Structure formats: C-alpha cells, structure tokens
TrEMBL record:
Name of the protein this chain belongs to: MFS transporter
Taxonomic lineage from the root: Bacteria, Bacillati, Actinomycetota, Actinomycetes, Kitasatosporales
Annotated InterPro entries: MFS (IPR011701), MFS_dom (IPR020846), MFS_trans_sf (IPR036259), Tet-R_TetA/multi-R_MdtG-like (IPR001958)
Major facilitator superfamily (MFS) profile domain sequence ranges: 40-429
Organism name: Streptomyces zaomyceticus
Subcellular location, record wording: Cell membrane
Signal peptide start and end residues: none
Positions with biased composition (Low complexity): 1-13
Span list, region Disordered: 1-34
Taxonomy, superkingdom: Bacteria
Length: 429
C-alpha cells in the first residue's frame, strides 16, 4: 500500500510514525512487528461485549425501566437520561485515554473498566426514580468509557498500517455481533430488566478479564504529568490538525444522525410502525437487530478489505455515509413493518462499512504517535458528544412534529453532511 505524505513524515507523526523517544519504528509503522497472535479475535470479543451493553441497556432495558417509572413522559425522560449520561461519556473518554497514555499501559484500564461495570449495573437495576436512574447510568457511561478509551487505542498501538483495515474490520464487527447479542439478551430479559442488567455487566467483565489475560502488551514509556491547563490545551490541539478536524466533524455528523434514531428504536416500533398482528415491539427489536447485524458483517468485512486493497478510505467512507442517509428515508415515508426491515438492512450496510473504514482512516490522520490514546479519546468525543445532543434533539423533534417522520428526515440530512465532510481530508485517499 502506498504511504501517504503524513505517514512518511516523522515530524507530524501519526500512529504510523516512529517512536517518539527511541527513534525505532512505532507500533503502527509499516515495519512494526505483527500484532500479538490472537489479537484480532480478542479485539472482536472486547468490542462485541462493549456494543452488546451499549445497545441492549439503553436500547431496551433502560427504555423499559423509564417507561415503567414515567409512562406519560417516557420520550422526554429517556432523552434527558441519555443526554446527561452522555456528558459523562464525553468527559471520561479522552481523560481515560490520556491517563492510559501516561501509564504506558492499556490492559489494566480495560480490566478496571470491565470489572467496575458489574456493580454499576447492579445499582442501575435497583433504583426507582428518574433522578437515580440518571445518576446510575452516568456512572455506567463513565466506567464503560474507561474501558472503551483503552480498547480503542490498541489498534494504533499494536497494528501495522498495512493491516489496519483488517484490524478495523475486527473492531467494526463488534458492532453488529454485539448489537445482535444486546437485542437478544435485552428481549429475553424485557420482563426482568434487573437481571438483564447483571447479565450485560457479567459479559463485559468476563471479556475484560479474557482480553487483559491473553492480549500481551509491551509497556510504553510512561509520560510525565502535565499541568491541568496544558492537558486541556493538549486535548484541543488535536483539533488544530486539518485532517483530524475534518475526520472528527464527519464522524460527529454521522453519529448524531444515527443515534437520533437508534436511541428511540423501541419507542419508534411502539408508536410509529404498524407491526404485524401478534408481534410485540420487543420481539420486533430482536428481529431487526440480527438483520441489521448480518448486513453490517458483510459490509464491515468487505469495506475493510477493499479499502486496504485499493487504498481508498475516503471513497468508502463517503459512499457508506450516503447509503445510510438513503436508508433513513425509507421509514420516513412509510410506517409499514416492511419499511423497517428494509431500513435495518440498508442502514446496516452503510453504517457497518462506515465504521470499519472510518476507523482505519482516523488512525492514519492522528496528529502525534505518542499521544495516540489521547487523540483517539478526542476523536471518541465525536462518538459520545453527539449522543449528548441526539436525545434532546430527537425528543424535541418528536414533540414538535407529533411523530417520527421529521426525525428520520433530519437524520438523513446529517448523514449526507457526514459523507461530504471527508472530502477536505488531504493526506488519505
């Protein structure tokens, strides 16, 4: 694969540059050693567990718990809980990334976040007011983003540039597989969400133990602590890089459009979609998620492989974001169950390819190799930040329009803008 100008520059540096202190090839350089044997399956398992919880808890169990507590105001209450808790995700992700950079280790942070989620899930299932649900889920977002920040940094740390499409595909496959597991477990415990919470916590905890025990890591040089002002400035400095900034904007727009709809899927099936007789909304979720997952698996594998083969990241990222926009138009103009099936399949094709290839693209535009976890944490603000806005926007749009059609249309526009945002990136084709 032809190297971009950024990858050839030791001054600008990315995850593909030389080591910041030794001058030896960095972990992501073309000459870096091959990743630890079995790393890709472990990445798949780690991301699968994470997405299972991210999909199954807010998408099913949390929505049911909030509906039980406040049935008349469920949309507004769900939007409030989701938005406030996403603030914690936004804060903890880059902070945890910087702390793991400083420690020179990833595995202990993955293990700590994975184990702490279990007592938090126990707490979440035991509360009975919207305020306490909000507090408990905020704690859940905090510890899961400690886990996520360290796990996300494994690819730029340990995988050569030429293999990042495959590694990103392994990471990306965690979303469809995890979504399916999350939907099935959520549906299985829809009548007993307290036990469901514990099951999700146990899945993440067990996977964290497996990953930290089996994925050997080489300790990186620890970093000296910086004053608070310098740390804040360091977080912002990544966005001063032209290509990284546009990658951030594109990710933020697409994620905003995606979660504006995905976060309310159960309520959409209850209040917008005309389901066949005898099919409950919870059962409908358990059908849609595997369909979406199969489409994601196909597009994730093909997208990662083809983007490596043709060295064309921007083309695949832009096209997949545009396809996701097309998918959102289908249920906007039809409330039928068939429309939701088509939407799930086409959206899976678009979003799966996008996440696989965009992850590879992002690792190639990281401003500095030595700050990979911190900068990936900043990039993950583009994942978590829109989740702060999405629930408020979605609940406002639904309340003002009296339905979900306008929400689908707005999400489609955001996806188109996300597709266009990759065009200004210069250092990656």
């Amino acid at each position: 694969m032809a190297l971009s100008s950024r990858e050839n520059s030791s001054e600008t540096g990315t995850g593909s540059g030389t080591g910041p202190e030794t001058g030896e090839p960095g972990p992501g350089s073309p000459s870096a050693p091959r990743p630890t044997r079995g790393l890709l399956p472990l990445l798949l398992a780690g991301n699968t567990a994470m997405y299972a919880l991210y999909i199954g808890v807010p998408g099913m169990l949390l929505a049911l718990q909030i509906e039980e507590i406040s049935p008349a105001d469920k949309v507004a209450a769900f939007g409030l809980v989701s938005g406030i808790s996403a603030v914690f995700a936004t804060v903890f992700n880059p902070v945890a990334g910087a702390l793991s950079d400083r420690s020179g280790r990833r595995n202990p942070w993955i293990l700590a976040g994975g184990l702490l989620i279990l007592p938090v899930m126990l707490l979440l299932g035991s509360v009975h007011t919207i305020l306490l649900v909000t507090i408990a889920w905020c704690l859940g977002q905090a510890v899961m983003n400690v886990y996520q920040a360290a796990l996300t940094s494994v690819v730029p740390d340990r995988v050569p540039v030429a293999a990042r499409g495959k590694a990103s595909a392994a990471v990306g496959l965690g979303l469809p597989v995890g979504s399916t597991i999350g939907a099935l477990v959520g549906a299985a415990f829809s009548e007993d969400y307290r036990t469901g919470y514990l099951v999700f916590g146990a899945i993440v905890a067990a996977t964290a133990v497996l990953f930290s025990a089996c994925a050997r890591e080489q300790r990186m040089p620890a970093k000296a602590p910086l004053p608070v002002k310098q740390q804040i400035a360091a977080f912002g400095s990544a966005l001063g890089d032209h290509d990284f900034r546009w990658a951030f904007i594109g990710r933020a727009l697409l994620v905003l459009g995606y979660f504006a709809v995905a976060g309310f899927q159960l309520y959409i099936l209850k209040d917008h979609t005309e389901l066949p007789a005898g099919l409950s909304p919870e059962e409908a979720v358990a059908i849609l998620m595997p369909l979406n997952a199969v489409a994601m698996v196909v597009s994730t594998v093909l997208g990662g492989w083809l983007s490596d083969r043709y060295d064309r990241r921007k083309l695949f990222v832009g096209a997949s974001a545009a396809l996701a926009a097309v998918a959102l138009l289908v249920p906007a103009f039809s409330t039928s169950w068939t429309a939701m099936l088509v939407f799930s399949a086409v959206n899976g094709l678009g979003f799966g390819c996008y996440m696989a290839v965009d992850t590879a693209l992002v690792t190639m535009v990281l401003p500095k190799a030595g700050d990979a976890a911190r900068d990936m944490g900043v990039l993950n603000v583009a994942n978590a930040g829109p989740q702060i806005v999405a629930p408020f926007v979605a609940s406002l749009v639904v309340s003002l329009s009296g339905g979900y059609t306008a929400l689908f249309l707005i999400a489609a526009v955001l996806s188109v803008l996300g597709a266009l945002a990759v065009r200004p990136i210069r250092s990656v084709r």
